Amino acid sequence: MNELYKYFDLLKSPVSPISYSILLTAIVLFVIYFTNKKIYLPLLKKHAKEKENLLAEYQEKMALLSIHDPDPIIRIDSEGIVQFANVPAKMLLGIDKIEDERINSIIPGINISPIELVEKNATQVFHLFFNNKSFSVFVTGISAINSAQIYMHDISELKEKEVNLEESQNKLSELSNRLQDLIEEQKQSFAGELHDNIGQTLLMLKMKLNKLTQRYQLLHKDKDYIEAIELIDQSVKEMKEIVLKLKPKLLKEMGLIAALRDLCWTIASECNLKVSFNVSPETFRLNEDLELMLYRLAQEALNNIVKHSNAKEFGIHLIKEEQNINLMIYDDGKGFDYDKVKNSGWGLYGMNERVKRNGGIFKVDSTPGTGTNIIIEIRI
């Protein structure tokens, strides 16, 4: 008991460490209380009030902008409940009051997660077909006001133009394909006319002249006569070359590989160019129409090399796979900007259309100063 009295006396002593500790704790608690009541809580209330005012001002501005916007605008909360809709939105829906309705019940095509968009301040963009109109829909979450704003822009006219453009492109493609068919038919017809008519006429003319030499021996020494015979021979030779280009006999008799190899070596010889020709596997045949198409594509590409590339070397790689045939034509010439010229001339455009018509892929890899690679892939 005496020990307990001594302890109380120690607490009463003004110099006691325990008394100092209690006093200091009391002062600290008082300062915390005072700071919290007189400074922190008023600031917190002030901040909340300012935030409330800012949100009200923000909502007012958004509402004002929405009212004057010609496009439909709808504001929803994080649960997808409509808070506001401007006049164009109500006219689109044909409803005067849509507030407090769920957005997906009045516009079924809007399948969004409002709460996720609001929490992340995220944006979602998609196309929507509604009331026989096409819309570009832009939904943005605004966490500051716990809402999401839906903007709908009518793109029906643009969609109609896209459809019309696609139809025009399809018609142009059909026209291109028909023109290619007509060109090929004319080539075959013209080759036949040259061979059967003009070719035979030239041969008959030469036979007549040869008979004259049997009657008049001096004609063998006549300069004009000799030049006439040489001109006929030259004409027959050139006519055969034209016929072979229009209707390659080797292609029909020996196939695509032999015809392309002959075409490459002929061009290399005539134009003094280096050539590389590779085929895998070494022998194969395709159907007649596909072989003719690939030959014409290679012929057009090689003509372009000779006319425009200033190349010193060119090559062809022909690779047959199980389901595809791949044709690559390349050169080391001056190259060109494909995007600038792909629609400016018939050559590349016609090649592209011919490949697309057969369900294939047509690629051109070329830039000024780097040569050109043309890659064609067609299913077989």
Q: Portion of residues in helices?
A: 55-70%
Side by side, the strands of the main sheet go: 2-1-5-4-3
Order of helices and strands: HHEEHHHEEEHHHHEHEEHHEE
Residues in β-strands, percent: 15-25%
Low-confidence stretches: none
What is the rounded Rg?
A: 44 Å
Tally of separate helices: 12
Tell me the distance between the termini. 112 Å
Provide a descriptive summary of the structure in words.
- A hairpin with a 4-residue loop joins strand 1 (73-77) and strand 2.
- It contains twelve helices and ten strands.
- It has 380 residues and is an alpha+beta fold.
- The strands form two sheets. Strands 2-1-5-4-3 form a five-stranded antiparallel β-sheet. Strands 6-7-8-10-9 form a five-stranded mixed β-sheet, with helices on one face.
- The model has no long low-confidence stretch (mean pLDDT 79).
Task: Describe the SSE topology.
Blueprint: H1 2-12, H2 17-68, E1 73-77, E2 82-85, H3 87-93, H4 103-106, H5 114-120, E3 123-130, E4 133-142, E5 147-154, H6 156-215, H7 223-246, H8 249-254, H9 256-271, E6 274-280, H10 288-309, E7 313-320, E8 324-331, H11 338-341, H12 346-357, E9 361-366, E10 372-379
Concise overview:
This protein is of the alpha+beta class and 380 residues long. The chain has 12 helices and 10 strands. It has helices at residues 2-12, 17-68, 87-93, 103-106, 114-120, 156-215, 223-246, 249-254, 256-271, 288-309, 338-341, 346-357, and strands at residues 73-77, 82-85, 123-130, 133-142, 147-154, 274-280, 313-320, 324-331, 361-366, 372-379.
